[in-house]
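Researcher: Sequence of Glycosyltransferase family 2 protein follows. Predict its structure.
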Amino acid sequence: MRVSVITINYNNGTGLEKTIRSVIKQSYIDYEYIVIDGGSTDSSKQILEIYSDKITCWVSEPDKGIYEAMNKGIIRAKGEFCHFLNSGDIYADDEVLRKIFENKEYSVPLLRGVQICAADTGIFRWRNHGNRDVTLFDLYVDTMQHQATFIRRSLFDKYGLYDIKYKIVSDWKFFMQTMLGDEKSVFLDMDIVIFDMTGISNDPKYYGLMCEERNKVIDELIPKTIRATFDHVIELEKEKRKYRRYIRLGKFINKLKGKKP
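Model: Prediction complete. Tokens:
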């Protein structure tokens, strides 16, 4: 089994059906499909029953949140790689899994692709750090797009499951742990997923909690000397940007002066 596709859901029947249909339309068939529902009270369970013959394993029962649900999926997963395609998310096209896995082998445990995000301001293609090595500093200031990354199942045996004491950043913590463990990744220059932007991680009201959790993870994983170095680099970059803006403004003012009679 090459890949375990894992969907978690809670009271998002419409999004769940959209995601299920996206998975079962994949032309590649060497996958299993696991759906973990948190005991939804909407139409979700009925939808799971309708598509039950297309789903390898599904449960509908209360859980302690997103990451416990993901962990339930990981525990059941038998594929070489895990991919989290949560309710509302869909594959970019019907050939995604085939293009990644058919007649291909990977020596690295993390496969990064492009995540498409549709927002009110337009459609964005996040290249997931692109065709280069990802560094610890990249994770310190950003993240890897979880929905556009395939994770070798054995990494969860090596680093543990998602930490359920965090509500928003446990996937980021896990990627941090893999970077500290010197795990390598490869960039797949292709669209993987169209990401549903309505989830908790994109809700502005949870921004404060996200920052609080990230700081706790950094305190837990990153030595203070390294953190101080990273923060210094960030401040230097801010100063460089201010300087560049100052130079551009000066050139613009001089140009205006030159046009005066």
